[in-house]
Amino acid sequence: MENCIFCKIINQEIPSYKVYEDEKVYAFLDITQVTKGHTLVIPKKHVSDVFEYDEELATDVFTRIPKIARALEAAFPEMQGLNIVNNNREVAYQTVFHSHVHLIPRYGKEDDFSMHFGKHMDDYTPEEMVAIADQIKAQVN
C-alpha cells in the first residue's frame, strides 16, 4: 500500500530496529517501547487487520510468534511474562492500519502496562452466555 508506514518499513524506505525477518514476516521494535523489548510482528503482505487474513497468512504470521517470544525471553532473562496484543480496527485502538501483533515483555506488576479483564463478569446470565456462544458458533465456517 502506497502510504502505509509499515509497508515503507518493510521496503526499507523508513528505518526500523529490526529483530527478525523472513520471506513472510518482519518484526521490529515498537518506537513507543511500552516495556523494554516491545516488538511488533507484521506480515509483509499488506492487510489492514485480522479480518483480512486467510489461513495461509494466519499460519505465516502466528507460527512466528513463539520463535520471536522465545528470543525476547532469551535476550531478557529478567522478563517474567509476555502480553501478545492484536488490536483490530479503530474502536479497538488500532492506530496503524497494517495488521500487527504486539509482543510486550512484562518485568513485573509495576512496569506501567495493564489490561483489565473481568469487569463485566456479572453482566450476563448463563442463559445469555449460551445464546452468545450459539450465535458465534453458527457463523464459524
TrEMBL record:
Gene3D superfamilies, per database record: HIT-like
Reading the lineage from the top rank, the first entry is Bacteria
Motif extent (Histidine triad motif): 98-102
Cite the HIT domain residue spans from the record.
5-115
Q: Which GO terms describe its biological process?
A: nucleotide metabolic process
**Which stretches are transmembrane?**
none
Single GO molecular-function term? Answer: catalytic activity
Q: Which InterPro entries is this protein grouped with?
A: HINT, Histidine_triad_CS, Histidine_triad_HIT, HIT-like, HIT-like_sf
- So where's the catalytic machinery, residue-wise? H100 (tele-amp-histidine intermediate)
- Pfam families found in the cross-reference section: HIT
Task: Specify the protein name.
Answer: Histidine triad protein
